[in-house]
Amino acid sequence: MRRRNKKLWMLSLMMLFFLSGCLLPHENSETLEMYNADGDRVGTARLNETDGGVSVNVEVEGLSPGFHAIHVHEYGKCEGPDFSSSGNHFNPDGKDHGLMQTDGPHVGDLPNIEADADGAVQEELIINEATLKKGKNSLTADNGTSLIIHDGVDDGMSQPAGNSGDRIVCGVISGDSQSGEEQDAPTDPTENNDKQKNEENG
């Protein structure tokens, strides 16, 4: 009888642990709903915490065939049609833009993605040095950030955003970002460049 009670107690404890895990927020993963400028849902982006960064599995349709720039932007807000509410690139270290830049890249800089002949994309990328947990490079801190797909291609060098073209698809990385609270004005992406020039001339 005592052994049976012990088994029931262990089973209850395991169920409690399982249920508590379901109710707690998951800091290691998040799934974004991706929307175009008309407000239509065009896919998802699944984020997972990994060693040294965050992996992003992008599944989106409705794009023009070919390569498109994709970046993490500094604010968790996607107001169409131009998505300018998302601000500039997520750049907590104040670096230059571009994966080919010696003084870069932004944390939010990512390789271009390629849409097939039907305009569909299914690719996995890594946001290096980012995290879904707490910290300076957190994608979910404060009001969160956003994942933006552009109409054009990121050339990997041009400031401040690689001549990537219009913002055509957006997904919010933090749920708190759509609370309707007023956002700060976008940061100046060239501010660090001017500071760097002054130091060189000084």
Automatic annotation (TrEMBL):
InterPro entries found in the cross-reference section: SOD-like_Cu/Zn_dom_sf, SOD_Cu/Zn_/chaperone, SOD_Cu/Zn_BS, SOD_Cu_Zn_dom
Q: Which reaction does it catalyse?
A: 2 superoxide + 2 H(+) = H2O2 + O2
Q: Where is the composition biased (Basic and acidic residues)?
A: 192-202
Q: Which UniProt keywords apply?
A: Copper, Metal-binding, Oxidoreductase, Signal, Zinc
The coenzyme or cofactor needed here is:
Cu cation; Zn(2+)
Q: Where is this region: Disordered?
A: 154-202
Protein's gene = yojM
What does the Swiss-Prot or TrEMBL cofactor note state? Answer: Binds 1 copper ion per subunit.
Origin superkingdom: Bacteria
Keyword Oxidoreductase among record annotations: yes
Q: What SUPFAM superfamilies has UniProt attached to this entry?
A: Cu,Zn superoxide dismutase-like
The record's EC number reads 1.15.1.1
Family in the record = Belongs to the Cu-Zn superoxide dismutase family.
The organism of origin for this protein: Oceanobacillus oncorhynchi
Function in brief: Destroys radicals which are normally produced within the cells and which are toxic to biological systems. May play a role in favoring mycobacterial survival in phagocytes.
**What broad class of enzyme is this?**
oxidoreductase
Q: What name appears for this protein in its UniProt entry? A: Superoxide dismutase [Cu-Zn]
Which GO terms fall under molecular function for this chain's record? copper ion binding; superoxide dismutase activity
Signal peptide (from-to): 1-25
| Key word Metal-binding present | yes
Tell me where in this chain the Superoxide dismutase copper/zinc binding domain is found: 43-173
